[in-house]
Amino acid sequence: MIVLNREVGESLRRDKFVNVQGGDFNLYGHFADFVRLTKSWENMEPDSYYGQAEAGMRYRRYSDFEYNPKTRELKQLEHRAYVQSKENNAYVGGVVRHFQDFSEEVISSPVMRSLIDTDFEVYKSVLPEELHDEIWQCQIHQIRIEIKPGKQLEITPEGIHCDGYPFSGVHFWGRNNVEGAESRLYDIHQQQLAATTYEEILDTTYFLDRDMRHYVTPARNTHTHAMAYRQILAISFSRPGTAFDIVR
């Protein structure tokens, strides 16, 4: 069970974002499950749309789910492509991208499920009360970036951008031999609001994605012989056909 031991609702309502340190979370039990989930970053399929093959590779899982906040039931939906507009993603906007779906083993992890519940509890702080028990869709991205020795690559080659979700939680899950990769948040006019470099597992940014822009600075592998990596888990919520739909 993951518990966030910090009140973040006021900051999220006021600033539309809040950065949370990994030390603000507690894990009660399930240590073996935490280790198993962490190892799941090591066997993902390549993101063939990423480019930059001379410097490294990105690996990704992506799936859509139906989430019931009242029962905490999570139902995986049929496989679907991930499509963004050119306005939101200048790099691969308009491209119909297919990524590896989550396996039952990964998505059924008690740690993963607890984190999804925790994120929705945070989101509730900016939602009207009548929406707290409604059915939502949950979109989850699991991403690992690997960098070749001595190389540098763009973490977000699309530049400063918006993914179009009403709410997102980006959870850091480890890095090695990486220099750089500063996570930055901007307003819609691309004026920088905050910057942080994730260092500790579960360092997290919660933000109202549609109302903001974000970017991660380039990352460099500081080792001359070994590969470098950086890992995140991004959990978002939306309600199709409503004012809380994804803006593509």
Low-confidence stretches: none
Distance between the termini: 33 Å
Q: Which outline best applies?
A: globular
Q: Rg from C-alpha positions?
A: 17 Å
State the secondary-structure class. alpha+beta
Overall pLDDT:
94
CATH-defined superfamily:
q2cbj1_9rhob like domain
Summed up, the helix count is: 4
Which SSEs are present, and which pair or pack?
Blueprint lengths: L1 E3 L4 H7 L1 E4 L4 E3 L3 H9 L16 E13 L4 E4 L27 H4 L2 H14 L12 E12 L4 E2 L13 E10 L1 E3 L2 E4 L5 E5 L7 E4 L5 E4 L2 E3 L6 E11 L10
Antiparallel strand pairs: 1-3, 2-12, 4-5, 4-6, 6-15, 7-14, 8-12, 8-15, 9-14, 10-11, 10-13
GO molecular function, one term: dioxygenase activity
Organism: Pseudomonas triticicola
Pfam family, one: 2OG-Fe_Oxy_2
Task: Characterize the structure shown.
The chain is an alpha+beta fold. It has a single domain, classed as q2cbj1_9rhob like domain (Jelly Rolls), CATH 2.60.120. The chain has four helices and 15 strands. It has helices at 9-15, 31-39, 104-107, 110-123; strands spanning 2-4, 17-20, 25-27, 56-68, 73-76, 136-147, 152-153, 167-176, 178-180, 183-186, 192-196, 204-207, 213-216, 219-221, 228-238. A hairpin with a 4-residue loop joins strand 4 and strand 5.
